[in-house]
Each structure stands twice: as structure tokens, then as C-alpha cells.
């Protein structure tokens, strides 16, 4: 008996549509998020993550509606990230039907936000999303980025992950900006290095291109694996990822 | 299989994502109301007590709406109650968080303590060692359910020989996954977030109402 490796499709939502581009640029429309969420659920997805990349107030309201409509029909955990900056934002998302929220930039600017959220809602509700890349001038060799990898936050990524856990986050979503969009496989070195410094569940993201890319991410220390592009374009199905994980000897649902 | 006409109240005491519980129970064909109204909670065919977050905060919220008394009164009259996650934990004698002991509803003798697992929270889909003959788990004995918690009950309530206990193991520690004790049932996991298996478990519970 043990936990199954979670396979998590990520839906990058922009103004109510799912989009995906390479390194967050050249966004292409990939469909209706509620419809895709239902499809992934039917394929055996263990959770769904919505990342709101809308810049406008209208876009945010649309994302809230997407969460609400998905929660009506899909009975698996839903995580929402993107633009979460306050306890009130978390409350709004949870009331709409989200089970967890992911914080990123707002927590970098104001780390106290982590404690404010987890004191109110518990640490299981909060995912720290870390967009990391290799930065030789950081002590660990990894730095945190913001704005979809375009800006350096001037933070050591391993130190930030560790601090996030100390401050109370229940989970780390590690997105390798070096691997993101390349479809060349997960960033195994980065996964192992983050795994070594945190005990909370670790979700690996960035770089998946084939079903065979997933088992090595788990071997490197991921408890859950997340991907967007390859699921949206039907390159690989959730079921195929689970078959690959099972064939490698990992428990799946 | 739906069980029409059952009135279920989800007790609203300011804890967590009640919408999911409401929608998942509605999908069983029940008529679901989310409320803290004492009379509605007492008169419903079934009462669901959800709960997310800290034990002490949940007990405060529960007491503020008289939830502990509502549960006691329902159980005394053999009226079904289902606790979920922290709503399962508060049914025990006490919870210990950061060294602070908070009295629970005291329906069962166990104490809620932090898991000894390295990897916490216990988050994800796990198997359950289901007690033979369980009504709650009928036809879903071998399925996985969605857990998200860092605290649990490790010792069995051995003075309740009739209570059916089901267990789950995570990273070296074993805690109660579910209890079925007459009208009072509870799950540490979230059936409302456990897909088709969870939906079946909720239908099994509604069928007992």
C-alpha cells in the first residue's frame, strides 16, 4: 500500500480559454478549459491545475467562472494559481470550488502571505509554485524567475523552496524554466536537488515530451508529475502516462 | 443507482470547500442543503460534517453553531451522520497540534495526532484496508481515495467492538481511514474529491438513510 503517483494536467487559462506556448510566449488556443478538464478526468487525471495567465480583471473573472463550472462536474482536486495575492483571493477561489491555490510572484514579494493563507486555511491548501532556472551566481546554481521566466527574482531557488516549507506551504510545484516547452524530458537534476531540501510533496513540471519521460521524474524524487502541452495537443494521454509509470513499477490509480 | 428523495444537510460552520461536498452529494440524487440551521440539521435524513484545516479552528467553528450537540442528539436518535476529513477527526476525544490539546466531540476515544511519516501532508490517492463487510465501501473495497491531511488517529477504539474500522498506510505510519459505528460514519479521506469511487461511497452512505 502506498500513494499513487499523481498525474496532473495543467490548463493555462487566458481570458477563459486554454493556451500554451513555448516558454510562455507565442500562445496558441488549445480549447475550452471546462471541456478539457472533463476529458482529463475521464482519462484518469488525479488532479487538475488551472493557471490563470490573464492580465485583466475580466480575464480573472472568467477564470473564476471556469473553476466554478469545472467543480460542478469534476470530482477530483482542483488547484488554481496565477495572480493569487491575498487571503481574500484564496477565499474567493475556494468558494468557487478550488481545493488548493498556488502562489508564486506575490509570495516572492511578500513571503508573509504564505503564513497568512495557511493560518486561515491550513497548509494543505497552499502550493508554492517555483519557476526555476540555472543561475550560476546563486549559491545552489538555481535561481527563481518571475514573469514566465523572463525576469530573475534574485533568489536562490533551493533556499526559496526550503523557506516556503518553513513558512507553511504544503506542496512545491517545481517548474524548470530551462526544460519548459522543450519536450526534451523533465529536468531530473533540478528535481533531485529540490527533493533533497524539502519533505513536502513535490510536483515536477516542465519538459515532458513522451510518456517515457515521466517515470524518471518520479525516480528523481517527484511525488506528482504535471504537464500541459503534450496533453492538450493529444501527443500523449493521461492513460498512456499512467501505463508508463505502472510499467516502471510505480503505483498509479 | 441514485437514491431519490433523501434530504441531506451539509453543516456550514465556516470550514472549507462546501461546494464540492454539496455537488457530490447532489449527484447521488439527494436533496442537499448547506446550512448551519439547527432544526434543519436535526431533521435531515442525513447530516454531513465536513472540515478542512486545523482541528482547533474546526472545533471552535463547530461549537459556535452547536454542531457538537447536533451530532450528539442525532446519534442518540439513531440518525445518520457522516464526518469528512477534519469532520472525521473532531468526532474523537481530542486533537493535539503543536503541543496544544483541544477537546473534540468525544464520540470515540482516540486522539488525533500528527502522522509520523516523513512526507507530509499525506496528499493523494491511497488504498484503504477495508474492514470486511463494510457497507460504506461496498463495491469500492479495492479503489483508491483522495487523502489530504497531516494528522490522524493511530490507535483503535478498542472499547467499541461493533465499530467497523478501516485503515490506511502512508510512508511508514498507519491511521484510521474510516469508521462505521451505528448511525455515525466518518472518513479521513475526501469522498467528494475521490472521483467515481468517492461517488459510489457517498451513494452507499445515502442508501443507509
CATH fold name of chain A: TIM Barrel
Largest sheet: number of strands, sense, barrel closure of chain A: 8 strands, parallel, barrel
Number of strands of chain B: 13
Low-confidence stretches of chain A: none
Strand-residue proportion of chain A = 25-35%
Counting DSSP H or I runs of 4 or more residues, the number of helices of chain B is 6
Count of spatially separate domains of chain A: 1
What's the CATH superfamily of chain B, by name? Class I glutamine amidotransferase (GATase) domain
Largest sheet of chain B: 7 strands, mixed
Radius of gyration of chain A, Cα only, in angstroms?
17 Å
CATH architecture descriptor of chain B: 3-Layer(aba) Sandwich
Query: How large, in whole angstroms, is the Cα Rg of chain B?
Result: 15 Å
CATH superfamily caption of chain A: Aldolase class I
CATH architecture label name of chain A = Alpha-Beta Barrel
CATH overall fold name of chain B: Rossmann fold
* Order of strands across the main sheet of chain B: 2-1-3-4-13-12-11
Kindly report the average pLDDT value of chain B: 93
Task: Give the termini distance of chain A in whole angstroms.
Answer: 12 Å
Strands of the widest sheet of chain A, in order across it, are 1-4-5-6-7-10-11-12
CATH secondary-structure class of chain A: Alpha Beta
What report would you give on this structure?
The complex is a heterodimer of chains A (253) and B (209). With 253 residues, chain A is an alpha/beta fold. Chain A has one domain (6-247): Aldolase class I (TIM Barrel, Alpha-Beta Barrel). Chain A contains ten helices and twelve strands. Chain A has helices at residues 33-43, 57-73, 87-96, 105-109, 112-121, 157-167, 188-195, 214-219, 229-232, 238-247; strands spanning 6-14, 17-22, 25-31, 48-52, 78-81, 100-103, 126-134, 142-146, 151-156, 171-176, 202-205, 224-227. In chain A, strands 1-4-5-6-7-10-11-12 form an eight-stranded parallel β-barrel, surrounded by seven helices. Chain A starts with 5 loop residues before the first strand and ends in a 6-residue tail after the last helix. The model of chain A has no long low-confidence stretch (mean pLDDT 92). With 209 residues, chain B is α/β, with parallel strands linked by helices. Chain B has six helices and 13 strands. In chain B, the strands form three sheets. A seven-stranded mixed beta sheet of chain B has the order 2-1-3-4-13-12-11, sandwiched between helices. Chain B has one domain (7-206): Class I glutamine amidotransferase (GATase) domain (Rossmann fold). The longest helix of chain B has 12 residues, at 195-206. The two termini of chain B are 15 Å apart. At the A-B interface, α3 of A face α1, β8, β9, β11 and α6 of B.
Amino acid at each position: 500500500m502506498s500513494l499513487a503517483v499523481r498525474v496532473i494536467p495543467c490548463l493555462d487559462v487566458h481570458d477563459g480559454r486554454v493556451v500554451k506556448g513555448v516558454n510562455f510566449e507565442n500562445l496558441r488556443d488549445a480549447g475550452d478549459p471546462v471541456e478539457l478538464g472533463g476529458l482529463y478526468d475521464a482519462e484518469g487525471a488525479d488532479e487538475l491545475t488551472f493557471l490563470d495567465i490573464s492580465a485583466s480583471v475580466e480575464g480573472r473573472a472568467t477564470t473564476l467562472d471556469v473553476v466554478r463550472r469545472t467543480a460542478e462536474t469534476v470530482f477530483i482536486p482542483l488547484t488554481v494559481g496565477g495572480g493569487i495575492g491575498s487571503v481574500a483571493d484564496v477565499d474567493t477561489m475556494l468558494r468557487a470550488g478550488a481545493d488548493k491555490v498556488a502562489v508564486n510572484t506575490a509570495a516572492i514579494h511578500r513571503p508573509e502571505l504564505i503564513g497568512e493563507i495557511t493560518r486561515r486555511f491550513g497548509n494543505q491548501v497552499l502550493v508554492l509554485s517555483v519557476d526555476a532556472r540555472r543561475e550560476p551566481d546563486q549559491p545552489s546554481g538555481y535561481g527563481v524567475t518571475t514573469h514566465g521566466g523572463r525576469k530573475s527574482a534574485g533568489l536562490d531557488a533551493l533556499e526559496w523552496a526550503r523557506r516556503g516549507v518553513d513558512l507553511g506551504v504544503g506542496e512545491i510545484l517545481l517548474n524548470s524554466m530551462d526544460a519548459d516547452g522543450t519536450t526534451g524530458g523533465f529536468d531530473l537534476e533540478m528535481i533531485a536537488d529540490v527533493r533533497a531540501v524539502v519533505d513536502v510533496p513535490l510536483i515536477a513540471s516542465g519538459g515532458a515530451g513522451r510518456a517515457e519521460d515521466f517515470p524518471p521524474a518520479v525516480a528523481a524524487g517527484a511525488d506528482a508529475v504535471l504537464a500541459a502541452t503534450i496533453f492538450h495537443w493529444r501527443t500523449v494521454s493521461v492513460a498512456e502516462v499512467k501505463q508508463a509509470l505502472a510499467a516502471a513499477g510505480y503505483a498509479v490509480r | 443507482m441514485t437514491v431519490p428523495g433523501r434530504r441531506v444537510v451539509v453543516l456550514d460552520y465556516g470550514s472549507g470547500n462546501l461546494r464540492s461536498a454539496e455537488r457530490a452529494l447532489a449527484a447521488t440524487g439527494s436533496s442537499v442543503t448547506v446550512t448551519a440551521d439547527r432544526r434543519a440539521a436535526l431533521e435531515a435524513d442525513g447530516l454531513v460534517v465536513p472540515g478542512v484545516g486545523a482541528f482547533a479552528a474546526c472545533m471552535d467553528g463547530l461549537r459556535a453553531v452547536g454542531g457538537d450537540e447536533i451530532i450528539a442528539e442525532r446519534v442518540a436518535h439513531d440518525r445518520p451522520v457522516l464526518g469528512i476529513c477534519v469532520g472525521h477527526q473532531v468526532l474523537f476525544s481530542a486533537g493535539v497540534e503543536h503541543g496544544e490539546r483541544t477537546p473534540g466531540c468525544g464520540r470515540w476515544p482516540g486522539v488525533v495526532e500528527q502522522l509520523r511519516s516523513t512526507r507530509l501532508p499525506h496528499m493523494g490517492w491511497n488504498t484503504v484496508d477495508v474492514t470486511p463487510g463494510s457497507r460504506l465501501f461496498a463495491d469500492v473495497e479495492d479503489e483508491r481515495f483522495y487523502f489530504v491531511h497531516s494528522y490522524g488517529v493511530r490507535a483503535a477504539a478498542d472499547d467499541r467492538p461493533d465499530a467497523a474500522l478501516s485503515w490506511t498506510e502512508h510512508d511508514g505510519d498507519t491511521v484510521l481511514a474510516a469508521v462505521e459505528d451505528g448511525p455515525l460514519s466518518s472518513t479521513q479521506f475526501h469522498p467528494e474529491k475521490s472521483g467515481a469511487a468517492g461517488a459510489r461511497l457517498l451513494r452507499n452512505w445515502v442508501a443507509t438513510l
